[in-house]
Structures are given as structure tokens and as C-alpha cells.
Amino acid sequence: MTNPFRFPEEQAQLPEPAILIIFGVTGDLARRKLMPALYNLARENLLPARFAVVGFARSDWNDGKLRAEMRRAVEAFSRTPLLGPVWEEFAQHLYYFRSHYDDAEGFRRLDECLQELDARYNIPGNRLHYVATPPVVFQQIIRHIGLVGLNRPRTPGSWVRVVIEKPFGTDLASARQLNASVGQVFSEDQVFRIDHYLGKETVQNLLAFRFANSIYEPLWNQKYIDHVQITVAESVGIETRAGFYDQTGALRDMVQNHMMQLLSLMAMEPPVALEANAVRDEKVKVLRAIKRLAPADVSKAVVRGQYGPGAIHGQPVPGYRQEPGVHPNSTTETYVAMKLEIDNWRWAGVPFYLRTGKRLPKKISEIAVYFRTPPQLLFERGEFDHAFTTNVLSIQIQPNEGISLTFNAKVPGSEMRIRPVVMDFRYGSSFGLSTPEAYERLLLDAWQGDATLFIRADEVEESWRLLTPVLETWQRMPPPDFPNYPAGTWGPSDADVLLALDGRRWRRL
Q1: According to CATH, what is the number of the domain 198-377+461-500?
Q2: Nearest Cα to 23, choosing from 103, 119, 86, 89?
Q3: pLDDT of amino acid 7
Q4: Residue ranges, the chain, pLDDT below 50
Q5: What is the bridge-based pairing of β-strands 418-426 and 402-410?
Q6: Which of 253, 245, 396 shows the shortest CA–CA distance to 336?
Q7: Which architecture does CATH list for 8-165?
Q8: Is the dihedral of CA 278, 279, 284, 289 positive or negative?
Q9: Under DSSP, is residue 276 helix (H, G, I), strand (E, B) or coil?
């Protein structure tokens, strides 16, 4: 099993020969993310020489149609340009299988197809199932995989794994039920619940930053840190996802998965080893330590919003209720801000402020660590050129991956004047490399059986245990007066009040 924190030159071992089956290959995820990621892995010689990719869907396609459509997808969405010879070689490994997801006979024929490909490529029965469909058919697919025995290794020493996309459930009860259904077919070590945020370089670097640098780890606690802000902002609206998003909302779409993962990595204790279960054990401990929000606390600690008409980059955009496919009186939230507290020794009294939303001024994701302000004994307040003088460590996840530290320095001249300055690290300029897409890393890890950057069943349930009471309280409360923030702004005014009541404010991004 590979270690995700080794240097690239130590990651030379290729994954074993296997067949990757993509359920939902005609969908957006396969076109925009999975196939470009596989192409880039092939381009960088990170796939085994003996492999096959089988796309499973209901559309009336064939091998030729799949290869032509996926070529167009790679041309449109790959991080690197399509190279003809590389694509032609890669495309010869792509196959299409047509069936419905509830057709047991179709899955039996799929098994026969996979055995034929095993013989053609001399593959010893290794299978990586990737469920890239809408959640409504997750359980159908898993059940039929089990019915025909596609969950069991075909030969001694071979393996079978399954990757399941988010959202994994819509609340605690549904997540438990889905975990139980998956557990009837696959053992937990076969299951890879994917959250693409964990494949981003800066998210992975958060562990290296914390545990490979002795200068910061002693400061990573309530004695030195005042509060933490986690922001996941999007400038886009719901695009073509109205049918999904209007039934989901920002809390389910972003907070329960992406933001809970960022928080747990930020706050976790040092694991005993950089391996899957050791890292995930510590993440679960963080989730269990977060103070639960009673119904009376929800209105004080959680703000929800919905964007109205406004402008993004100077261009007018409609409000959420005017988006195609959205109910004109929808009360679905497109924005969430919340205050969470972790009830353990390291983080006692340190609030974690989370915010996420659509149609905000820019696309940006970051974790900002605000250190406590030093006593102003040596310098008069008037000697500061800036009103906000605390040290801030900013971990930027997207779009410009890097880390920056704001600290105070003297302005040149005869007077003692203090001004904040910034030390910046950027992946692109420091390493001169094109940062791999998250799905490249995660596909490769799943292929190699490394679950470190994937989510365990208990992680999913602990996250939902925290957030399901918020959803239930919202259902009982009168809906807010939506819309309550114009597109192109940083959210509803109540989100500013949430921090102002604690004497703090959101970081300007």
C-alpha cells in the first residue's frame, strides 16, 4: 500500500492490472472528471500496461461512440492538452456496456464481459467498481453487483473494490441505511467513499504542514489560536443541477462532506502512523468532540441564506428562484454560515466559523487560522497602520493552492510604525509543476487500495449526527424571508452578526 505523503520519486510502483467499471459513464462526472483524470494518469505512465475501462450506462452507445465522446471530454476538460498517440493507445482500453441499473440479467452479462477482458489483457480478476450515478440508484447497483457475485474476488490473491460518490445519504437515518446496504455486499475495507476535496494537494499538505514542521505544532491549540475560519465560496449558481440542488441545499451539498473533512483534518490529533485507519481514527474523534447543536442553539449558531438577483463580475445574474427548474417559492438554502466548538483539551474555547455559498463574489476555498493578539504593551495602537493586526495563517485550497502567513513588521523610516505583511507560498511557483487534479490522485489510490484519503462509515455517520438536528430544526422553523442576499455579495447580513457578537469579523477574501 502506498504512503500518500512520500515524495514523487518514491511513488514509482504502478497499480496492479485491473478492470475499472464506471457506472454512469455517460454522465457529467465521468466526462468532466473521471475520464480526464484517467487520461492524465495514462499520459504520465501511472496506469498498468494491462487494464481495461468498462463504461456502464443505459444510453444507446457502443465502443466507438464511447471513445469519441470521451475524446471530446478530454479535449474540453483535461488539465493537459490531448496528445494524439497517447489518446489512441489509451482509447483502445475503453469499452461500453449497455444495461439498466435494475436489470439482473444485464449484470450477469457484465460479468461475462469482464471475464472476456480478463483473458484478453491477462488480468487476474481485479475489479474496481466506480458508482458515478445519481444517488437514487446507488443501492440498485450495489445490490445487483452482489447478486451476480461481482463483489467477490474471482481468483486467490485478486481483489474487488467499490468507489461511491457523494452525497452519501441525506441525513443520519439514510446514511445508516446506505451503510447497511453496502455492508451486506462489501466489507468495509473494500469500500472507498470519495470526497474529491481530500484529493486536493493543499488538503493533503495540511497534514504535512502540521506534523512535519515543529515550529507550528506547539502553537496548534487554544493557548495560541483565537479562532478558525473555513470558507468554501462559489461564484457560480446551480448551473444545470436544479433537480438535484433544490432537494439538497448547501448544508447537505457542501457542509456535511467537504467542510467537515477540512475541519477534522485541521483539528485532529497526530495519528500514530500515516495510514488509512490511523488517520481516520483521529478524524472521527474530532467529529465526536464537536458540541451538538440543540434546537434552541440552531438559530443562534447557524445562518442560512438564498441568493437573489445581482451581478457577478459585472454581469447580471438571476436569483435562485428564477433559475430554470427551481420552484418559484423554494426555501432551499444556497448559503450556510455556522459556529462550531470542539469540546476537547486542544480546542476548548476556540470557535470554528464555517461559511459556504453560491453566487458569492469569487470562487475561493481556504482555512484561515487566527492567532491570539499579543498584549499591546510595547506599541501604542496609533503606531499600527492597519486596524487588524493579528497573525493569520491562510491555507488556500483553490483556486491558487498555497499557504500564506500574515505578520507584523516595521515600516521603513525614523518612526515606529507597524504594518501587516504577508509571506506567501504557492505550489505552482515553488515546484514548477502542474498540480494534479484531485480525481487523478484518488483514482490511483483506490486502484492501489490506499483508503487514507477516503471516508469511513463511522465518519459519514458522525458528520450526519451533528448536522441532522440542524435540518430537522429548519423544517420546524418558519422559512426565512428569502432571498436575503444579492448575487455577487458575501452572503446575508446575519452571517456578519454571527461573528460580530463574538467581537470578530469574516476575513476579507
Answers
A1: 3.30.360.10
A2: 103
A3: 39
A4: 1-11, 387
A5: antiparallel
A6: 253
A7: 3-Layer(aba) Sandwich (3.40)
A8: positive
A9: helix
The burial class, CB within 10 Å (0-12 / 13-18 / 19+), for 15 is: buried
Query: Which candidate in 144, 258, 313, 327 is catalytic?
Result: 258
pLDDT at 378: 60
Q: Residue 21 to residues 41, 107, 222: CA-CA distances in angstroms?
A: 16, 12, 47
All CATH 3.40.50.720 domain ranges in the chain, comma separated: 8-165
Distances (CA, A) of 289 to 301, 320, 465: 17, 35, 12
What pLDDT is attached to residue 74? 97
Location of C-alpha cell 492490472: 17
C-beta neighbour count of 500 within 10 angstroms:
12
**167 secondary structure, DSSP code:** P
Give start-end residues of each CATH 3.30.360.10 domain in the chain.
198-377+461-500
How far is it, in rounded angstroms, from Cα 382 to Cα 2? 54
Distance (Å, rounded) from C-alpha 181 to C-alpha 451?
20
Task: Say whether 386 is catalytic.
Answer: no
